[in-house]
Each structure stands twice: as structure tokens, then as C-alpha cells.
Amino acid sequence: MCCNVLVSLVSDHTIPNVLFISEMERERKDIRLYLFVSTDRMEKKGKTNSIIHGSYPGNSEIKKDVIKVIEDSIEDINSKLEEFAKEKLNDGDNLIVNLTGGTKIMSIGVYNFFKERKSTIFYLPIGKNIYKQIFPSLKQREHKLNFRISLKDYFISYGIDIKSRDINRTMKDKEYTEHLFRKFTNNELDMEIIDGLRKMRNKKQIPLEGEESSFLNKIAFRTEEEGFLNKKEIKYLTGGWFEEYGYNLVREHIQLGDDKIGLDVQISHAGTQNEFDVIFIHENMLYVIECKTALKDGKRSLLIDTLYKLSALKRDFGLFVNGYLFTLDRNLRDDEGNITRDYQNRAALLGVRLVDSAILDDEKELNKLFEGIKGGKKDV
User: Fold this and answer.
1) How far apart are CA 114 and CA 93, in angstroms?
2) Which run of H or E residues covers position 133?
3) Contact indicator for 267, 317 with CB cutoff of 8 Å
4) Which of 67, 139, 81 is nearest to 114 (CA)?
5) Phi then psi for 23, rounded to 5 degrees?
6) CA 211 to CA 215: how far, in whole Å?
7) Are the C-beta atoms of 72 and 108 separated by less than 8 Å?
8) What pLDDT, in 10s, does the model give residues 331-352?
9) Each residue of 46-83: pLDDT tens digit?
10) d(Cα 10, Cα 21) in Å, to the nearest integer?
11) Can you give the C-alpha Rg of the chain in angstroms?
């Protein structure tokens, strides 16, 4: 009986394998066995399990084999595959091979082994929703990748947990948050009161004094309990509203469902935790937006903190991310209206795009920004 065996090469970057497995599952339902060519180091990091959990959310009971090879030894790779073929492969099996993961030597070894058998060998270019058939050779060798992963499954694919309970809940509706954005950009917010509230962010609840009540009345802010501000409301008033503004902008311009975007997302992996303002998946690519009304907190540089926080996604979590910093800081640009060279150089070094009120307040520039994201381009 003819059945399909799907071969994957395991490495730190798990998403190409998850995307390909998910695509093949939808195209070819008769996959009887999954073979993962891995290494001892990758298995200790749990990479094969992460691929399986990302490909089969809630159901990891698939028929699989894992071969651990010496990553820089063609001889060892060939020997292990020969042993596997004798024990597990049938004469009628169609072998579907994805070469995207692993090391270069692993790719060469696996390619050389399977091209002598009844195999079709593919490769997924990073950042493109296509997969290419590289053996046997075809004139039309590019295939469209139709599968689109969710935000949760993207993180699962890297062994990352989302700790936040509800990542799509906003404190206020879109209209009110836009109202606060206008108040801020028009210098109509009492920053002295907001700075005072910022010192209370760790309080569960605070009673409202006369000045605070007057301020809330002026900005038409309704509290959940009369005469008191709770922790969520304090967070919103001291900058959380700008995070929600960024979240609403993304949803409006890119039209994402709840499964593709999150607000105030806490993630955890191998004892390392972090929290990000807005995270979303578009066309199988991960985007993170940090939102800061100001880039300095006293002597502390929030710009540097934020840039390194975004770069930590790759360092600590192994993620490839498109990073953006939304800010309303009026000192970002020089007298000629250009982003200061120091800020621009620091951001470019870490692959982060700076977006300030000159863009957020300009509909043409804002549309250009999101058209770039929808087209998979980032002008840093």
C-alpha cells in the first residue's frame, strides 16, 4: 500500500517545519509516519516536541521516529538513515523531505540519501509563503503555502508559553482611546497628575482626591467603582491607553482575528519571562510593537531598555521578529524634523523601526507603514 512518510530536519528555527507539516497535512491526508532527523543538542532543548505541538495543537500522539545524528558527519547521517530505511520504510512509500532545518551538512547528507529513493524534496525560503521543490527538478517548482499559523501556535512551536489569560481585552473602547490620543498630542492632559498616578501603579486600588477627580471629569474617564481607581485603570491612564491605541491601529489596518494578535502579552520559556505591549502574526511572520509615550523616565533611557527588550526575543527566546517602537516623545526628532541620528542608529543596529506622532498623526504615512507590513517590508 502506498503511503507518505514526511521527513523533517530539526534545528532551533522550528517554524518552517511546523508550516510545512501543517501544509502537507491539509494536502495529503495519508501521512503514515513522521521522521525527524535531529541531534542530541536539539532533543535536549525539546525542539522536536515543540514542532509536533505546534503542528498538532492539543494532539501530540502522532506516529513518529526521531533519528539523532552527528551533525557534521555525512557518514553517521547516512548510516543512521540506512538503518531506519531497513527497519521502517516500505517499498511503496512516498518520501516527502523538507530540507529547511538542520545544519548544512545534515541537509547535504539527507538530500544525498533520499534522492536515490522515491522522494520529493522541498525547501522553504525564510519569510516567504512558498515552498520550492528541488528534487526531482521541475520547471514550475514553486508552490504557494496556504497555511497560516496562529499567534498561540507560533509560540508553542518554540516551546514558549503565553501566561496572559485574555490577550484581546481592552480597558476602554476604540473611540475613547482615540480621544485620549488626541488629548495627549494636543497637550491637553495634566502630566503632573499622570506622573503622580504612575507612582501608584503597584497599588490594587486608590481613593480619588479632588484634583484627580477633576482631571478624570475633564477627560470624561469613568471608573468602575465611584470614588476609586483600580490597578487596571491606573495602568491605562499612565500609558496603557497608548498600548491599546497601537493594538487598535493594527487590528484596523491589517484586519486580524483574535487568534492572530495579542495585547499586553506575557510569555515564558525555560525560566525566562518577558512582557510585550502588542504582538501579532501576519502572513506567518511575527511582529512586536512596544508603545512608549516618552523615551525617558528621569535619567533612565526607555529607548535603550525597549530596544534591548525587543532584541532579547531572538537572544532569549530564539524568535525571528519584526520589531517596532511606537512613541509620542517630542524629542525624537531634530529641528529639521528628522529622527536624531543617535536614536536612528541605535534602532537600526537592532533592527527596530521607530514610529512617532509624525507618522501616527499623518494618515498617508500611517497607511504607508501598514502597507509595508502587509507587503512584508520594513523600512528601518
Assistant:
1) 12
2) strand 130-135
3) yes
4) 81
5) -65, -45
6) 6
7) no
8) 888 888 889 888 888 888 888 8
9) 999 999 999 987 665 688 999 999 999 999 999 999 99
10) 13
11) 25
pLDDT tops 90 at residue 317? no
pTM of the model: 0.92
CA 23, 29, 31: angle at the middle one, nearest 5? 90
Who contacts 11 (Cβ-Cβ below 8 Å, separation ≥6)? 42, 47, 101, 102, 103
Neighbours of 289 (CB within 10 A): 22
Distance CA(3)–CA(29), nearest Å, equals 9
Residue 379: CB atoms within 10 Å: 7
Q: How far apart are CA 250 and CA 197, in angstroms?
A: 28
Q: Which amino acid is at 93?
A: D
User: Which residue reads 502537507 in cell numbers?
Assistant: 24
**What cell numbers appear for 358 in the block?**
509624525
Q: Give me 257's grid cell.
A: 482575528
Instruction: Tell me the C-alpha distance between 226 and 29, whole Å.
Output: 58
Average pLDDT over residues 353-359: 93
The DSSP bridge pattern shows strands 130-135 and 119-123 to be antiparallel
Give dist(CA 351, CA 286) in Å, integer.
Answer: 13
Q: Which of 350, 355, 158, 155 is nearest to 266 (CA)?
A: 155
From residue 73, give the alpha-carbon distance in Å to each of 38, 85, 121, 155: 13, 18, 21, 31
Q: Per the structure block, which three cell numbers stand in for 339?
A: 529622527
All three cell numbers of 143: 508552490
Cell of 132: 520550492
Would you state the cell numbers that stand for residue 134, as one nine-digit string? Answer: 528541488
Please compute, for residue 372, the number of CA atoms within 13 A of its CA located in the half-sphere on the CB side.
14
Nearest to 13 by CA among 62, 49, 51, 64: 51
In angstroms, rounded to a whole number, what is the distance separating the alpha carbons of residues 294 and 330? 8
Q: Grid cell 510593537 — which residue? A: 289
Chain centroid offset of residue 61 CA: 26
> What is the pLDDT of the chain when averaged over all its residues?
91
Task: Look at strands 321-327 and 285-292 and give their pairing.
Answer: parallel
At 65 the three-state DSSP class reads strand
Cell of 286: 511575527
- Give 15's contacts (C-beta < 8 A, 6+ positions apart): 54, 149, 154, 157, 158, 284, 320
What is the rounded distance in angstroms from the CA atom of residue 149 to the CA atom of residue 51?
Answer: 13
